[in-house]
Amino acid sequence: MPFQLSFGVLLSALVGITLLSAPIPAQAITAELARKCSALTTKQFPPREPANPAAGSTKGSGRDQQAYFNKCVANNGQVDDNAPK
C-alpha cells in the first residue's frame, strides 16, 4: 500500500504543478478596436502604391507599422499622432 499512496501523492503533485505553471491566455481584442487601429495605422503609414499593400509604405518599415498598431491596441485606440518618430 505505501507504494500506491506515494504514487497517488506524486501524481497529484505533478498535476497541480502542471496546472499552476500553465500560461494565462491573452485577452482577445474586439473587432471594432482592430478596425480602428488598422485604419489609423494605414493613415499613419500610407502605402507606396495605392491598393497594393505588398509594395510597402512611404514611411517606416513593417516593424514600425506593427509597433504603431500594438501601441494603438494597448491604448484602446488612442494614439498620439504628433509624437516624434
Write down how many β-strands occur, each being a DSSP E stretch of 2 or more residues.
Answer: 2
* Secondary-structure element string: HHEEH
Helix content: 40-55%
Q: Beta-strand level of the residues, as a percent range?
A: 5-15%
| Oligomeric state of the chains present here | single chain
Average residue-wise pLDDT: 81
Largest sheet: 2 strands, antiparallel
The whole-angstrom Rg is 24 Å
SS-derived structural category? mainly alpha
Low-confidence stretches: none
Distance between the termini: 70 Å
Q: Total number of helical segments?
A: 3
Write structural notes for this entry.
The chain has one domain. 54% of the residues lie in helices and 11% in strands. The chain contains 3 helices and 2 strands. A hairpin with a 2-residue loop joins strand 1 and strand 2. Helix 2 (31-44) crosses helix 3. The radius of gyration is 24 Å and the shape is elongated. It starts with a helix and ends in an 11-residue tail after the last helix. The model has no long low-confidence stretch (mean pLDDT 81).
Key words describing this protein structure:
single chain, 85 residues, mainly alpha, two-stranded antiparallel ribbon, 3 helices, 54% helix, elongated
Indicate the topology.
Elements (H helix, E strand, L loop, with lengths): L1 H19 L10 H14 L2 E3 L2 E6 L4 H13 L11
Antiparallel strand pairs: 1-2
Short description:
By secondary structure, the chain is mainly α. The protein has helices at residues 2-20, 31-44, 62-74; strands at 47-49, 52-57.
